[in-house]
Write a structure and sequence with these properties.
This protein has two helices and six strands. With 143 residues, the chain is an alpha+beta fold. The protein is elongated, with a radius of gyration of 21 Å. About 17% of the residues have low confidence.
Length: 143
């Protein structure tokens, strides 16, 4: 069976367009060549973010986000990031537990992202991002 050039051209276009969509959908544009996301997931840059320290009591935790009632009475939501990473470091705060959280607000976002969370009762420190705000579970920080 012989295909004419129009059919071959159409097949090539469909394959190329499908590949572009697949690449964008899978986020391959964010990889660093090692198969891990090297792109910046939280808006961090090469300059340290402006860090804020929050203190309060845990009101909820869902593996990706921590909710606290701050000492001033505000209800705050803090993005932690990758749930598998959070489990791997043993992070499992209990409702009612006092915490101290170092956070920043990534560029273009309105929610806090955690750098560290300290459980005040045990003084155990859990680190989620490096000093530049880069997540420890992705890119050059990933093991």
């Amino acid at each position: 069976m012989r295909l004419n050039s129009k059919v071959v051209g159409l097949i090539v276009l469909v394959v190329m367009f499908g590949g572009i969509l697949l690449t964008a959908d899978l986020g391959w544009w964010q990889t660093d060549g090692s198969g891990r996301g090297g792109g910046n997931h939280d808006g961090a840059s090469e300059t340290p973010p402006e860090v804020t320290v929050l203190r309060g009591v845990v009101s909820g935790y869902d593996l990706r986000q921590l909710s606290i009632t701050a000492d001033d009475g505000q209800s705050l939501y803090i993005e932690l990031g990758n749930s598998r990473y959070n489990r791997s470091i043993g992070f499992a705060p209990q409702v009612g537990e006092r915490v101290t959280v170092e956070v920043f607000i990534p560029g273009g976002k309105t929610a806090y992202s955690a750098i560290t969370v300290t459980l005040d009762g045990t003084e155990q420190i859990y680190t989620f991002r490096d000093a530049l705000g880069n997540p420890l579970w992705a890119g050059k920080n990933a093991e």
